[in-house]
Amino acid sequence: MGRVAAEMLITSPAHAFAEFKRNMGTDCKYGKDGAYTAEDLSSFVLRRLKEDAEAYLGEPVTEAVISVPAYFNDDKRCATKNAGKLAGLHVERLINEPSAVALKHHMGNEEAETFIIFDFGGGTLDVSLVDAFDNMVEIQAVAGDNHLGGKDFNELIAAEFYRENKIMEHLLTEEERGIVIKEAEALKRQLTDTDSARRTVILGGREYTMRMTNQHLIHTGAELFRRMAVPIRQVISDSGLEVGDIDKIILAGGSCRMPVVARYLRTLLDIPVVADENPDESIAMGVGIAAAIKEREGDVRDMILADICPFSLGVAVYDGSFSPIIQRNDTLPCSRTEYYVTVSDNQTAMKFPVYQGDNLIARENLLLGTMEITGLPRAPKGTVGASVTFLYDINGILDIRIDSGRQKLHKVIMNKRMGLSEQALEKRLEELRQMTLSPMEDEKNLYLIEKAQRLYRECSPGVRSYLVSALMHFREVLENGQGREIREAYVQFSVYLDAIEKNKFHFSGFDESFFEDDREDEMD
Q1: How large is the average pLDDT for residues 6-12?
Q2: Which terminus of the chain has fewer CB atoms gathered within 10 Å of its CB, N or C?
Q3: Radius of gyration of the chain (CA)
Q4: pTM for the full model?
């Protein structure tokens, strides 16, 4: 897990998984035999966090507040709750990630302010427009893209590498493609501090050069930047505000470290763009504040977060179109009622398929369930019907009440995926317990082994023989050595691998004036 898994993506790609968050709530399977779902893999992460917290606190941890992308639909949110269950946690509250950042940003600030949270992570983009004053943080509108993140820039850089070096990606092995993606991500990180970066990539014993400038990244990633603008326009439009009403854009998520992102947003809206020193930590800090609010603790006990519904909720009507009852961006918790009538003479029953989404065609939205009311009196069409009331709370529980006068129906829809029986849950928990994870005390050693195996694939033949000898010695000490001897071997092997890593790659800074000249040439 963590660094070990990052190395195994190169050395054992069939046994390591990353960026599975996008597939929460889907039937996507991981592993050669499809042994894991995204819920299972997420539960491993949560279980490790639970164990780490218990080791630090010295007491059991049984509850959790988990952040999710604001644009996660019901399936994805409930899959997240299931992951918590499988990790042995009671997840009473999910909080939207941009809402968590808004809490963190406004805490201790009594001035009124209106701002956009631009939460750009590894796999998803969330945008929220927030109005904050006194102790109130009110989300006005949310939008996003569940398939846009730093991962897409990694793949973009990799694609440019293949093109420039005339490499046919489909002819590479899975491990070689993993090496290219890893180097692409490393190059992207270098572009955070310099305007150009270069990496050396070894494939099949041959050296290739991967290079990129921020300006070229902007040029080749034009479509990705255009997609960033879509949810920004959406939240401004939904809120009814003008750009001049917005004080600033706040950056969150690790991918916001890319300077091209801040540069683009400044150009797009011409308002201040600010970021925390550690934008990838702001969500976690905000979730901590949300947990404290829930427990009514400390200085945050009086803070209020007014969140909203990220998707519309409604029913399908006779022509297949979608009739919203609760609209996107309605403040939670909320209750809305609509009245529906028969469409045929002497109609005695009415079906209400319940959907979540914002597509005009009902079936293109997410089906949550179906309810049917019967026993309607025979009468001309349009003269009898039923009132449908939706109550939706901050934890994503939808309470539906249908009343025809003669019959009343009541149903609580948590999600079809939440229908795990206690027996099914226990069975899956036991299965996951059998899927052992690396013991805490051995994980750092395993990390070095995986790192060495990855470097072996990447380094030149002249270094390989020395690396093999060092690895064999380290393995021997782990198998036969004792405490101090193992610790000393760990330090020596770690220093040796770091030296190989540093000497392997070459990249240099970029003359700022040359970059400016280059940019002017491209503009011409």
Answers
A1: 67
A2: C
A3: 27
A4: 0.70
